[in-house]
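Model the whole thing, not chain by chain.
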Amino acid sequence: MTLKPFAETISFYRLHKKEIEKKDSRADVRIALLPSSTIAGLKETMAVHCHEMGLRPDIYVGKYKQTAQEILDPKSDLYNFKPHIIFILSNVRAALGETYLGPYAISQGTRKRWFERTLKETEKLIAVLKKSDAKIVISNLEVPTHSPLGILENKEELGLQKTVREINERLCDQYKKDVQVFIFDYEGFLSRIGKQNALDPKLYYLGDITLDPQYFPALTEQLMGYIRPLKALTKKCLVVDLDNTMWGGIIGEDGLGGIKLGPTPEGRPFWELQKYMLSLSERGVILAINSKNNLEDVREVFKKHPHQVLKEEHFASLQINWSDKVENMRRIAEEIGIGIDSIAFLDDNPAERALIRSALPEVSVIELPEDPARFLETLQRLTLFDAFSLSPEDKKRSEMYTTERKRQSLKKSSGSLEEYLRTLGTTITIRKASPDSIPRVAQLTQKTNQFNTTTRRRTEEEIRKLTSDKNTLILTVDVKDNFGESGLTGVAIVRLAKENWRIDSFLLSCRVIGRGAEDGLLSAIIKRAKRAKAKTIVGEFIPTPKNAPAKGFYKRCGFVLAESVGKTEMWEYSPIKNFEAPKTVTVKEQ
Amino acid sequence: MNTLKNIASQVLGLPKGKIQDTLVRRETPEWDSFNHLMLISEIEKKLGIQFTMAEVEKVQTYGELKKTVENKTK
């Protein structure tokens, strides 16, 4: 996948869309766009972007200025379309009507009432939409930059600009905790491209086009931030080059004192880029290095350079050697335990980018401009890492990968696997899923690919429904050891029919596999089954290209293959038999 | 005026051979009102010129479009 700069014109996208449509017709994501001005061309742009991500989109564009009618009519085309995600693209001119140009023709009291009414109406529409399973994204409103009051505008208690700002704020507050509704900061987007550029008056008067279509690609890129997590396509790891990417110059030639990094005109672009990368790491993006260098030279920068922001412990994998970058990229994925398709790659060298792009098309190669001064803004604009929620585990993720590196070195120095496991001192805590853990449970079902017996993806809403279902048991596992806490990293979903229990999903984050947590979780299920006098427990297994680590798990634990239905294997166990987790792991139940 | 022809061909999705001076807007389904706006918009950006709203509405044939552009790039 290539992230192109936003240079293409709408006609480019419209022509490409036709080509895509010729190729396939089976849709795997249905997107509804509900506009309040003309957005012809946005659909095509979005289709091309989706296609680049490997999706087959079906996009519905709502009828011109009929958003409310479509939402309120349960038989409308919108609902027939059964969207997975709905974008309500509001427009301040349409929302404010006459008030937009004549805000002070009405009294402040009337303005206030209008303001409350507008919000209520919007909330009512969203409440109706929320009955569908779709994610709802509503754009906030552009804050006008004009005022008939001129310099006195902000002396008004509830002036025009404040009214719009207040609407935006209140919308955010209203849905702060909502996992289905998201507010897209269209006002922020317009500020970035410049409100004066965004609206071409000719296009507005002749065609009611309030955003110049030359910005549709940029807008689409922002909206993709909602599509990626919807389809579990969020990137987990940012792999970076070093020379001329993280600092100016070449460490092997220019030396510690020669590279450009820090509070100087040439050093600041790299310095600020590193600071931004640190903040990405703090929100849970894993960092790794893929660089042609001598490891010792780089270690010297980590240890001695006064302005090196990112230290060795911030990186989950260091592939610093003279091997080719494709090989290194594979090693990074393997070391961290993520798929190659979870990686985004940042490298100043167009040849390296082209190499990765052709050898590993599933990696998102970030197209960097030539000038390092523009690296930061490029990175800041990316929506590759966007997720619908961030769990405490996400935020601690980078730290966890660093401790994982320490575990690996202990493993290497231990005499036997048992000695290693004993030294680790793993403790797992089993709990029933609770409202607090539901977002994390859903997230794990969405993201876990390797140790996942059935790879059934579930949304928060679906998990919530399952937790209140009497015949479903959801257990979670928290893992910790002497190196630190890995947090909630495993889930089992068990369907309880009277005498036959069926393990619908059983998954563990790859970084805790092999430490006894999987056996511990299974023993907790079996114990409960025994107590409930269940006769059999069936563990389902559905092979995928990625879940080889989970293959053989049930067999190893004494389950017997009872039948195969297509690719699905049914492994059976009789809970009369005891099943104990290995002694190297302590199992606590809460 | 090769560039103009390229732009028109791309935006309207018509082969270059069809982009003749005699091409009439209201007789060309591909040249609908939205595509007309996109065409003007792309010409403005690619050739670095500006149309007035009246000029946008006045253009009825490719020949007229070419003439308006020529006057601006002279």
